[in-house]
Specification:
- With 384 residues, the chain is an alpha/beta fold.
- It has helices at residues 8-12, 24-33, 52-61, 80-87, 116-135, 186-195, 213-223, 244-256, 273-283, 317-320, 326-338, and strands at residues 14-18, 37-42, 45-49, 67-76, 102-109, 148-155, 158-164, 204-206, 266-270, 293-296, 309-312, 344-349, 364-370, 373-381.
- The strands form two sheets. Strands 2-3-1-4-7-6-5 form a seven-stranded mixed sheet. A seven-stranded mixed sheet has the order 10-9-8-11-12-14-13, covered by helices on one side.
- The protein is elongated.
- It starts with 7 loop residues before the first helix and ends with a strand.
Length: 384
């Protein structure tokens, strides 16, 4: 395979990390902490420079990024015909072989090419035609679990073609073996833990833990467990300049830094027995996860935790089924939080209209998108 520095990421060490809305600045700092250089926030992402070990470390240890892209080339593109003619000349066998599968993801905005699915189809044809012209065979497409993800982004008639070095979304940690209805995305839960400022200096409690995503992300963060520690493979292993020895060292160093979680530091509860069973099943997969106590208890029956960090994602209309019950539930949650003396509470509202129903004065409110929900994370300070 060619290892000439012919691609953008090879020439400049430049990459792009995608992230959910509202987390760009947090991700920028995380990337810098993991060894990135020249990080710059943009809409739903961060452009950054990195060497190979930092690239591997970011994929393995980022709790906030959803994907890390390595840009191959960019070019002016006003038609699908030109897209195909240009893309068919990319040396795709630097990344793919006939026994590997691939898939295309595409987005378009403010361009002559209007439809992302058709743009993806044209790029898929270009990849297939490259192999057909060179080998008289084509690699197969697998849209569910491909070996190589190729990304196409066309904005204002400029096409950007990249390889997904993560090999699929990084928010899929692998610990969620059981779930409840409308679970929080793992990377969003990680962002909430980071936004809370919690570092393990005092207890953290989730009184509506559902399947335990907030608890799990707090556990990963405190224990320094790489969020992708269960991932079978990464997309960067298909890059032509991949170095297995560098990746092995990065992984070994990260794994050695994992620490135990003290008993009682992270706890949660939920009134739904099925949710508690799911949370316990998910948490036991984590290192030290069995040290996280979860009880089947309605939060109104709890002894209010004092001098703690409280995080929760109260049920909204989709999760409860009966929207009429939502305001009353939030009012009761507010009454409970008032009893948690000396604590700080961070409540995620999938429906921001419910914020006044809590009956507490917010310290701040921050926009945070969770899947299709344009929610808000709200901080409350409970006086002693």
């Amino acid at each position: 395979m060619s290892i000439k520095k012919q691609f953008i990421y090879q020439r400049f060490g430049a990459y792009f990390a995608s992230v959910c809305d509202g987390v760009e600045n947090l991700l920028k700092q995380e990337l810098l902490d993991l060894g990135a250089r020249k990080a710059q926030t943009v809409y739903r992402g961060v452009n950054f420079d990195a060497d190979q070990d930092a690239l591997y470390r970011i994929n393995y240890m980022s709790g906030l990024a959803t994907r890390i892209y390595a840009p191959l080339m960019q070019f002016a593109c006003h038609s699908t015909k030109y897209l195909h003619r240009t893309a068919v000349n990319i040396p795709w066998d630097d990344f793919l072989s006939l026994d590997k599968t691939f898939a295309i993801s595409a987005t378009v905005s403010h361009s002559a090419i209007k439809h992302s699915k058709y743009a993806a189809l044209c790029l898929k044809d270009a990849v297939a035609d490259y192999f057909w012209e060179k080998y008289d065979k084509r690699p197969n497409v697998d849209t569910d679990n491909p070996d190589v993800w190729i990304n196409l982004h066309i904005q204002e008639n400029k096409a950007h073609v990249s390889i997904d070095t993560s090999g699929g979304s990084l928010h899929r940690r692998g610990y969620r073996v059981m779930s409840t209805e409308a679970p929080m995305q793992e990377s969003v839960a990680a962002a909430i833990v980071r936004m809370s400022g919690w570092k393990g200096d005092r207890p953290l409690y989730d009184p509506m833990c559902g399947s335990g995503t907030l608890l799990a992300e707090a556990a990963l963060y405190y224990s320094k467990t790489p969020p992708a520690w269960q991932r079978k493979a990464f997309g960067f292993i298909h890059l032509p300049d991949y170095k297995a020895g560098v990746w092995k060292n990065v992984k070994q160093q990260a794994d050695k830094a994992v620490r135990d979680i003290p008993t009682g530091l992270i706890e949660g509860s939920d009134r739904d027995r099925n949710a508690v069973q799911a949370a316990l099943k998910n948490l036991e997969i984590l290192p030290s996860g069995k040290r996280i106590f979860v009880s089947c208890t309605d939060f109104q029956s709890l002894k209010p935790p004092k001098k703690s960090v409280i995080v929760c994602n109260p049920p909204y209309g989709i999760r409860m089924g009966n929207k009429d019950m939502v305001p009353a539930l939030h009012q009761k949650l507010g009454e409970f939080l008032k009893k948690c003396k000396g604590s700080e509470a961070f409540v995620y509202f999938g429906n921001p209209e419910m914020i006044p129903a809590l009956g507490l004065e917010p310290k701040w409110q921050k926009f945070l998108k969770n899947g299709g929900l344009k929610g808000k994370l709200v901080k409350y300070i409970i006086p002693d």
